């Protein structure tokens, strides 16, 4: 854009206005660069501020988020399987029944009904009934309450609450076990054979009730985390599903097969570990170690990835 011609102003108003004879002062009609920078900038609307939730709000959102199934979740369930193996390796030698594996208890219950006088040395009917009944009660209560939650049963708060309850029950069983059975190996057998009917019947049934309820609740918890191959307790279905897998010997990625292999391996390793602790330290220590392990897994649930931040389960 062309600038207008400059105006000629004489130094003395009385002098001739001729541009030749007058002293000229050139006045630019456009602002200089410095003047342009000195002008105030136009007002702009205030920028939107990013809202950062406070710590209580972030914690609440974290606890109410569903847990996403990842390798970290599988590791937690494998650890629970290991500690369940330790428990069953302890409860059967002491009480002649299983706290978590209910296949054997179901058969024992049928045998006790038809051969009540010949099975006392093999298993104790009150112990079997207590373990089976409390296992079912623990699974039923955890599962039915989970169905009635306003959110998913995989909600972190629910998983933490049920896992913390299971841990407390196992630790209480360990404390009671120290009272029921002595640590001396020569006294264990005599007490174990009379645990269901003798003087130690009450505390013995209490140990089985606590462990069985916690085991039933734990199996339901593993189902809610969408890892059906790792039940954390029952091995029969895992063995069958493993051997009939059409890609059992395939070299490609086979997540269900790998999960079953790891589950069976950790359950067996837990059985060996429980048997070793039972032999050298006593059954009470085996249950105590199992409870401490469950406490560690409960804390680990705080750090699972949330479902809204993860990938689909099929990609895990």
UniProtKB/TrEMBL annotation:
<keyword id="KW-0812">Transmembrane</keyword>
<keyword id="KW-0472">Membrane</keyword>
<keyword id="KW-1133">Transmembrane helix</keyword>
<dbReference type="Pfam" id="PF06912">
    <property type="entry name" value="DUF1275"/>
</dbReference>
<feature type="transmembrane region" description="Helical">
    <location>
        <begin position="261"/>
        <end position="278"/>
    </location>
</feature>
<protein>
    <recommendedName>
        <fullName>DUF1275 domain protein</fullName>
    </recommendedName>
</protein>
<feature type="transmembrane region" description="Helical">
    <location>
        <begin position="198"/>
        <end position="221"/>
    </location>
</feature>
<feature type="transmembrane region" description="Helical">
    <location>
        <begin position="284"/>
        <end position="303"/>
    </location>
</feature>
<dbReference type="InterPro" id="IPR010699">
    <property type="entry name" value="DUF1275"/>
</dbReference>
<feature type="transmembrane region" description="Helical">
    <location>
        <begin position="157"/>
        <end position="178"/>
    </location>
</feature>
